[in-house]
Amino acid sequence: MKLSKSKVVYVLILICLISLVLLSGNRDFLQKHEAVSEVKGNNSNEYILGAHYFGNEWPITFWTSEFYNLDSDMQKIRNDGFNTIVLVIPWGEFQPGIDPIKYNDDMFERLKYVVNKADLNDLKVIIRIGYAWDFDPDVQYPNNERFEKLYVDDLFYKAWLDYITKIKNELEQFHNVTFAFLTWEDFWGIVEKSTHINSLDERIKYAKEIGYQNYLKNNYDLNEISKLYNQSFESFDQIPTPDAKKESMRLMYEFFDYILIEKFYIPAKERFGNLSLEVRVDSDPVYNSDGSISWYSHNKTYNLPDSSYTTMYYSPSMGAENNSNEEPSDKVLNRFDYILNNTKQNAGDNKIFIDQFLYFDNTPAFSHNTKIKSNELSNFIGKSYNSLTKYTSGYALWNYKDYAANTVYNAAFEFGLKGWDSNNVKSVKNENDSAVEVSGNGWISQTIPKSRDFYHSYSEYVNLKFSARAVNRNSTIKLSVGEWSEQQSLVTEWKDYNFKIPVSQLNKYDLKFSSINGEFILDDIYLYSFIQKGQVYDVNGNSDALLDSIKELNQKLSLQNDLIPVYEVDLNKKRESQYITDIFDGSSYIEEDDNGRYVWIGKNSEVQIKKKANSTGIEIKGYVPFSLHRKYNDKVENIVVELYVNNKKVKEYTFTKDSPLSIKLMWDEIDDNSNIADIQIRTNSEFNPSMQGESDRRNLSIIINSITQLK
């Protein structure tokens, strides 16, 4: 445990400070619905039990999808034990214009509508800012191209910062928004591109454009660079981006870590406020000149400056063999504990939030990754509780509900005919549901490049699904996808239609529905070759194999929010807290044995207590494990425990054997008639079990069981 900075929390003592033993489409659509909910307090210290929310779509097409199931969806999420949803905000779709800056007001209205719905359903919201992908046809410089230009074009950088500010301003009215985060993924493109440029001149040019040469100039001399590149340079402007299989690649990783924090995270945090960053917890291989391989860790980015949370992701493949193998859950759990421990140790005082808890991943491109044995997934989820409670302050599922990777933009016509070409077509309403009506001889089409289907090279078929009905009498339509076409008869009742089309027959996915005879109404179109699965709910919303395991995990983790009693804190303070590591600075997480609950503290710890009415003093109870200090450091002769109150030393105890600790401090011993006791506990020794090869990497000194007020 690294000692935290001073986090002053004044506790209005109603009960003991540490009751570890005692509590051992559009605006028109949106304006028809509720106004912003009544402002509620935001308990940002509640253990986060989160689910990414994509409705009936996926992150790329969610914001143009139907919202009429929001209430029932969120009630289901809440009933499954979650207290938070995570919303993904694509940069392009929300800020389609860069020069000049232009915002999509409809998207922001929809964002506020969803956040408000979450609040009405007693759900917190976490915002992922800056997702790279969307299909909006109005976006200037779409997808990854935008993020690359952040490095090379100040116009894009200023627009991006303005986008951060815009989201902050739009959401600041909502007290259920816990925090937001950026992710390293959105900025990683320059690393990938730098290793795929073949021309030396182009590599040198790119190294200058993205600021890599300037970074090296400010941090290294040419001799150091020449040694790592294994060639001589006369000036920094001769240095190219490194080869991925050379030792110099380490410098590119260093550059990325530096720029991620200094150019992106810190300026964005200055604008947004309560901002986190999903850090890269995968290590990257470095191919040393002697033929060996070492691993570059991005752990210097974990201790985010002035942040409450460090955000991370998790997959069983991390640190594994990844040779298409399966492993028993207990082996994966050991690795899981190590990864979380390592992240926590390098994150300073920040809490850890796992935004993507990927215990299962069927992404085709990662089919070689190590997986948990399918019959042990439930066991892994259940036992993950131990590591989650030790190291994290929350987690979220990416796949709460399976989703089809739909390639169709505005597939439910919530935004009318945007993104579609048409003839003799009009928008219609079916109760609250949007659709289109195609007249006789009419047609509607959308140009869809095959590249929109990220998974087509792994799939044998692409699936076409839609809902349709004839208007007054049965009709016949022609539907086509690229070079494939089919005729279909329609009846006057709504019906779902499904077609499987061989991917090998398609050079493009251009989609068209034409009337051969009669009018018809069309809605809810899906064109996809892959379904991302999480085994909680299937794509149709039916419960899946791991739902019960997730609900049981949530139930156990929700008890974490009850382990620490609800304290009345000084609301004028910038930071409210109910977590023991915040209330008791220098403490570790709560543990429990046959004698009750307790916390370890390090050599320096601090807590502040406000005098309770009729209180005569304060009693601290704990235990001094002298034998453990001797076990890890045989030079320890005694354990000295000093008690400081309001910066004045008032007590000192010396221990030469394992002993209970009991300290009583009377209020009349505190100077200047203060009702506040700033208590500091200092010891002369601490030990770290990992120094002798054990898994626990905390710095430990003594145990505290309770701090109570005397009457």
TrEMBL record:
SUPFAM superfamilies, alphabetized: (Trans)glycosidases
UniProt entry tagged with the keyword Hydrolase: yes
Keywords for the protein's UniProt record, in alphabetical order: Glycosidase, Hydrolase
Transmembrane segment boundaries: none
Occurrences of domain Glycoside hydrolase family (ranges): 61-173
GO biological process: polysaccharide catabolic process
Pfam families: Cellulase (PF00150)
GO molecular function, one term: hydrolase activity, hydrolyzing O-glycosyl compounds
Protein name, entry field: Glycoside hydrolase family 5 protein
Record organism: Paenibacillus mangrovi
